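Usage

Read records sequentially. Each one opens with the input sequence:
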Amino acid sequence: MAGWGKLLITHTFATPVDTARALQLDVSRGDVLVRKAHGFALIDLIFVCGIIGLLASIALPRLLLAKQSAGAASAIGSMHAINSAQLTFALTCGNGFYAPDLPTLGTAPPGSREPFITSGLSIASVINKSGYNIQMTAVAYGGAPPACNGLAAGAAGQGFVAAADPDVGGNFRFFATNANNIIYENTTSLFAVMPEIGTPPAGAPLH
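and closes with the structure output:
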């Protein structure tokens, strides 16, 4: 019994010592847990912002050019639509004369639901579409008869001028057309210098 008691006492007091020694050894070996930090450091955010800025400086000019190209294609399409509408108006409704403005082309003749041009190009005298201001005019000819869609006598023209000018700076593609049904492009507006019939003093024809 004395031996068992001695053994129990030895085990009881030895265990904490061994445990403390084990802990001390672990610390001496550097086995200490360090909680890892999560998230971005300031230098990481600066680096990401720099990459985003670099990509934006490369992509934005290309996006602007693509937008301008799309707007120019739409403007050219509008010039084609006006040419076609004016020719149809002169042959079928205007007795050989042309409509003086876009709203006149948007007025259907009696008994018809189809105007000479779509509503998107006839709701006003000047239309803003795809980054371009589109307008058309014709000098009234006093000898013109009334048109079939209600246009009064003397209001139609012997020719016409239509133009598409960019509505913002930085875009240098200007377009215009007239009764010759040829579309011209220039780096400045042609609306004021384009004759109703014939070749303008500036610009190059589109083919």
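Summary fields computed downstream for this record:
- The chain has one domain: 42-205.
- The longest strand covers residues 132-137.
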